Write a sequence for this structure.
């Protein structure tokens, strides 16, 4: 006789995979609402959803604490925030080490990667996922299938998305380049350094900041270079 399985971990995992998009969507929402910065500014005192909403100008008088609680509880379940229960059953939320990557203010310990989340959740990238299936049936690149052109042709034509993409690349390279220049001695003795596909030049900026004698050349597409800020040491 077969046994009734009430707690089937595999079934729960597949359900979880099917709804995983909720996590990046919730991250996207809290970043746009500025919540990691609000919580990191509250000097380690956790805040309720009502207290958080009171600090979000866009909420005005129509902010929904119930909806914010649901979003914050989901993100607390994966360690982005820390949830605690207080008198009267009020839930409050504080920052965690993971949350530091979403805080934009460096004086609050921010190591921002929020633009990375924002870029990946942008409608431009989200639209490409719909074409994953066709990438197998037709062999087409999903990005080109979704937008009619490859990624770097789109960034040339779409200044809104280009800004988001360039910030995401910079935030990402910032984090690891700071570690690389601490540990890597291969830049010593280099006189000219070319960063091919250097984006708006962040990697070069970190390297030249550490190795003052190097002359740097940031090589990228014209529409990227035209927005790249100048800094000492570049030719
Ligand atoms: C993944 S991003 C890397 C950005 C950069 N390394 C950083 O850390 O911010 C790739 C870069 O390659 C550039 N790129 C793409 N095609 C290129 C080409 N044909 N010539 C020069 N740069 C190109 C893009 O504009 C983009 O900035």
């Amino acid at each position: 006789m077969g046994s009734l399985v009430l707690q089937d971990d595999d079934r729960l995992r597949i359900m979880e995979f099917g709804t995983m998009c909720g996590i990046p969507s919730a991250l996207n929402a809290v970043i746009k609402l500025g919540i990691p910065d609000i919580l990191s500014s509250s000097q380690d005192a956790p805040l309720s959803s009502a207290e958080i909403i009171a600090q979000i100008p866009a909420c005005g008088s129509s902010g929904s604490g119930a909806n914010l609680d649901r979003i914050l509880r989901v993100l607390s379940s994966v360690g982005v925030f820390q949830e605690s229960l207080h008198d009267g059953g009020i839930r409050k939320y504080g920052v965690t080490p993971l949350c530091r990557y979403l805080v934009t203010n460096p004086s609050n310990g921010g190591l921002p990667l929020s633009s990375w989340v924002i870029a990946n959740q942008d409608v431009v990238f989200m639209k490409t996922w719909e074409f994953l299936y066709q990438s197998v049936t037709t062999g087409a690149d999903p990005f080109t299938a979704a937008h009619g052109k490859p990624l770097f042709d789109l960034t040339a034509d779409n200044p809104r998305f280009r800004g988001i993409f360039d910030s995401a690349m910079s935030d990402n390279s910032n984090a690891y380049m700071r570690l690389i220049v601490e540990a890597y001695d291969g830049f010593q003795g280099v006189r000219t350094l070319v960063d091919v596909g250097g984006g708006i030049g962040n990697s070069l900026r970190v390297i030249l900041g550490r190795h003052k004698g190097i002359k740097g050349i940031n090589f990228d597409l014209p529409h990227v270079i035209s927005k790249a800020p100048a800094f000492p040491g570049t030719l």
